[in-house]
Amino acid sequence: MALWGGRFSSETDKELTEFSESVSYDKRLYKYDVLGSKTHVAMLAAQGIIPKETAEAIAVELDVIEKRIDAGDFELKAELEDIHMHIENALIEKLGDEGARVHSARSRNDQVALDIRLYLRDEITNIAEGVKEFQQALVDQADRNGDAILPGFTHLQHAQPVLFGHHLLAYVEMFARDIERLLDCRKRVNVMPLGSGALAGTTLPINREMVCESLKFERVTRNSMDAVADRDFAIELLSALSIFAMHVSRLSEDLILWCSQEFSFVELGDAFCTGSSLMPQKKNPDIAELSRGKTARVYGSLMSLLTLCKGLPLTYNRDMQEDKEPLFDAIDTVNKILRVYPPMVAGLEICRENMFSAASDPALMATDLAEELVKLGVPFRTAHHRVGSFVKWCRDNGKALDAATLDEMRETIPEATPEFLDLFSPESSVAKREVTGATGPKAVADQIAFWKEKLT
Questions:
Q1: Quick check: is 383 in a domain?
Q2: Are 353 and 150 spatial neighbours (Cβ–Cβ below 8 Å)?
Q3: When you count CB atoms within 10 A of the terminal residue's CB, does the N or C end of the chain come out lower?
């Protein structure tokens, strides 16, 4: 008979047992369940709710159980439903009625809420550190090859020359905001729910603040119904992970394009690519493609949890058992990305000549012409129109912008001076963009120096 089976007169149907079990995936919470239970019984003993000797015996046996699970010497049974019941059942088998005291003043509702928060607290910290390592790989690559010039794109069309380092550092900035979101989310995860009971608290004289302090939470939850009923902290985490995955997907798209023969800007290390089962010549950017694809998987986890919670009345409903698989899957997916992506970035080789050749189209310096007119006092919209007319004239006459003579330029840009003929160099274009945050060599060097110091 199940530990909750006192009011039942028959065994649970086998199909229901298989349908309702969660130990196959929530077993990863075992260390947090042991930690929470040890802290809980220490508080119960301090409050005189259970004998001190019982609390000590339970704590010792919990350590034994944890080591058994570590060693793979702990049988998991579907009829015991989840990891929490497995651990409690093992205590009772060893200590009898004294072991059964572990669940005093506690429901599985607040117990599970505690374990998830403990688990997510650690995972968020680990993921944030992983994202920081990702940033470091990008900064190191920008430091080595940041002076290479390539075309920046808008609408996937060549726009203006930029430094390769500037492009990579854009993702460093995105990942910095991802870390901020993760750590901000951690504040709302780091709230202690134990003591809320099933939904209404307990009549026993517990000390929630003692447990809170022992487990290093910021504070206790203020409402017992909210504590067991909501999973917004998990939804928030999935949202933050989805945004991070979206940023990785965009970087992946850049790398996939850059690796193509049409671009040939970068070369990925052989260790991070695969070949074709049919075409011997192929070298496929699998990590980038799979990361782009796995972003959809993380999004799916977020939508699953949002949909799961949207129609639930207060307080706990068994539907909420379904929060763990999408949550765990998203965390596992992000951790896999973080293991393979930074070393791939670190081993990236760039093709400077191809980048520079693509950035050397004089049309990419059209904005430089317009801004030179602004320096002469021409209103920008007028300057924009005149340069646009010049571009059209060059195309109509089959000439590159830098092949036009000064007289030909003056047909559409009457203010043009001889210096305008020297504005078609990508090096010069980049070098003039030294405002804070721009793509100029000094501005990019400042960005790199900032991130080197911050990441150290």
A1: yes
A2: no
A3: C
d(CA 271, CA 294): 20
Rounded-to-integer distance, Cα 378 and Cα 416, Å:
11
- The per-residue b/e assignment along 53-87, b for 16 or more CB within 10 angstroms, e otherwise, is ebbebbbebbeebbeebeeeebeeeebbbbbbbbb
Residues 260 and 295 in one domain: yes
- Would you say residue 236 lies in a domain? yes
- For residues 111 and 188, give the distance between their C-alpha atoms in angstroms, rounded to a whole number: 17
Report CA 11 to chain centroid distance, whole Å: 44
**What's the number of CA atoms in the CB half-sphere (13 Å) around residue 7?**
1
Which of 186, 36, 210, 55 lies closest to 114 in space, CA to CA? 36
Q: How many CB atoms lie within 10 A of CB 252?
A: 23
CA distance 446 to 436: 9
Q: What is the value of pTM for the model shown?
A: 0.94
Q: What is the pLDDT of residues 339-388, one digit of tens each?
A: 999 999 999 999 999 999 999 999 999 999 999 999 999 999 999 999 99
**Location of structure tokens 């309702």:** 20
What CATH number corresponds to the domain at position 400? 1.10.40.30
| b/e code 186-219 from CB counts within 10 Å (16+ = b) | beebbbbbbbbbbbebbeeebebebbbebbebee
Catalytically active residues, by annotation: 155, 276
Is 136 strand, coil or helix? helix
Let me know if 230 is exposed, middle or buried by CB neighbors in 10 A (0-12, 13-18, 19+). Answer: buried
Q: Give the largest Cα separation in the chain, rounded.
A: 101
Place of tokens 């999408």: 326
Domain that holds residue 371: 360-455
The C-alpha atoms of residue 127 and residue 178 are separated, in whole angstroms, by 10
Quick one: 384 and 439 in the same domain?
yes
Is position 203 within any domain?
A: no
Q: Which residues contact 233 (CB under 8 A, 6 or more apart)?
A: 117, 120, 185, 188, 189, 191
Chain segment 30-89, per-residue pLDDT in tens? 999 999 999 999 999 999 999 999 999 999 999 999 999 999 999 999 999 999 999 999
Quote the CA–CA distance of 331 and 366 in Å, as a whole number: 46
- HSE-CB of 97 using CA atoms within 13 angstroms: 2
